[in-house]
Amino acid sequence: CLLWDWASPHILPKESSEADKNGEERNRQNFVRLLKYSNPDWLFLSGAFIFLALALIGEMFIPFYMGRVIDILSSNYKETEFLVAMFYMALFSIASSAFAGCRGGLFIFSMFRLTRRLRLLLFRSVIKQDIAFFETTKTGDITSRLSNDTARVSRSIAGNVNITLRTLVKCIGVYSFMISISWQLTLLTFLSSPLTWIIQKLYNRYHQDLVEKVQDSVARSSDIAKEILESVKTVHSFDAAEDEAKRYDDSLQEIHNLQTRRDMVRAVYLLLIRTINLVTQVAMLMYGQTLIESGFITSGKMVSFILYQMESGDHIRLIVHMLSEITHSAGAAHKVFQYLDRKPQVSTSGSYCPEQLHGGFVFKNVSFTYPSRPDTAVLQDISFNLPPGSITALVGPSGGGKTTCVSLLERFYEPTSGEILLDGIPIQQYKHQYLHAKVALVAQEPVLFSGTVKQNIGYGLEHAPEEQLKEAARKANAEPFILGLPEGYNTEVGENGSQLGAGQKQRLAIARALARKPRLLILDEASSSLDAETEHEIQKSLQGIEGLSLLIIAHRLRTIEKADQILVLEGGRLPERGTHEELVERQGVYYKLLHGHVLQNGE
Ligand code: ADP
Ligand code: MG
């Protein structure tokens, strides 16, 4: 308890003492929890603790034998005694180095294992979060928790605990030896402690502040570089390369200034501390000399004492530093645990997987509001059917809520009220994997992954036979262009399919959707980058797939004239529905859209 109180004041933000207490309590809980995460490494850690103890025992005896050697040399010299003392000194010195090496190695090994474990846990938890989480959370925040905070946390556990423990135990050993030599001399070494303490505290506060500022400026600088590199086309076309280089240089200058200030602060601090140490040592030597003269201690003992004292000074400083590090990393632990403990708002606990499926979807009085925009209702009391094997078109002005309907079908979000049913059963009762095998989506802007064409079509279908993937490619009318690629199905598509054209990407995305043999295929303006002929071909081959319902959100209204039903979605409501002919006759929203469209495109 004392140890925590010791380090925390200059690390935690200045809040009321009540909040301080809560913060400390939380840090302590996080720390205990982290220790639990280290459980699988108990064998390595226990080994490390044993080596730690052994190394320290060895180390403690070196100054002792050094003093003895000096006493032997300065009184009536006996060769055997001298050799024995030298032998022990060498023995303890070699053994303690070897043990210290083993201890360090084991701690670092456990640290890497813990980092890896934490990263995987965190990644698992994050990747399973609902889409709303990703909309309200910056990717940079997630990746920084994943890489920096996990590393800092495990460093605190395995690394700092290692050093703190070692130092603490060593301190006890050192002071025991010192007191056994002379308690008066020991007391003298404490005289400068209050001053050291104050300097230490001031330094910690100021230095920590600067360290954070340096980190911030490094982050800002890399943000600037990232921004410039990502918009390099714009930079070139405005001939702004030199200006941008200057902007980047300014950010580098800021880092440099802060780093210089940080290092100067450190230099002044070290100078002060070393001066105090020197003064203490001089006082000690003067007093020690009177002790030697009056025969209380030998000069060898005095040498041992000085050696111990030199160690002790460093160690107290190190403990203070390490404790503040540990408290600091408890903050990082909090960040890691925050995401680790977050429960996705869309539950994935459904377990229903019927063998037979009709494949009829029903929207029943569905209303929806985006969590990130709680004041605007995007869908208001929508009801419609998607009968098995039918083609439904969803049309309407942009922003009407079409993509939102798709997101609800994909269970990216839960409806605010109402239900979506599959064969009469709410979709959240189906097993997550099952539902996603039955509903396939080709999104407005399809995302491909770097890898081959074949890997992209088979995404999420590790063991699918090659023929299944090729069949999907044929149905998506993608095979002709795939075979034209240098290595056919084994051609790399580049990062997000950058080596393919927009139309090719879309056909590949359709093939990927078909490869899992869905019962409902959703094309969300998926054909917008295809020419009319290709679009027609694809639709024809899709219609030929038995039992497949299509939900088409189309950009060109002409392509959906043959749909079994057309739903017009406007402002989150469905003012019209029917076949093309019925809707044209009605001369309502659809008619106007069609009219506007024809006018716009001059068709
Ligand atoms: P459509 O696909 O018909 O063009 P959307 O379903 O994409 O329309 O959008 C419907 C409304 O919801 C729009 O007003 C849009 O601004 C809003 N919206 C869409 N996505 C989000 C989101 N992720 N968070 C908040 N609001 C959104
Ligand atoms: Mg849309």
TrEMBL record:
It comes from the Eukaryota. The keyword tRNA processing does not apply. Its main location: membrane. One of its GO terms (cellular component) is membrane. Residues 361-596 form the ABC transporter domain. The chain crosses the membrane at residues 42-66, 86-109, 267-287. The keyword Nucleotide-binding applies. Belongs to the ABC transporter superfamily. ABCB family. MHC peptide exporter (TC 3.A.1.209) subfamily. Keywords: ATP-binding, Membrane, Nucleotide-binding, Peptide transport, Protein transport, Translocase, Transmembrane, Transmembrane helix, Transport. This is Uncharacterized protein. It is a multi-pass membrane protein. Residues 47-328 form the ABC transmembrane type-1 domain. It is found in: Endomembrane system. One of its GO terms (molecular function) is ATP hydrolysis activity.
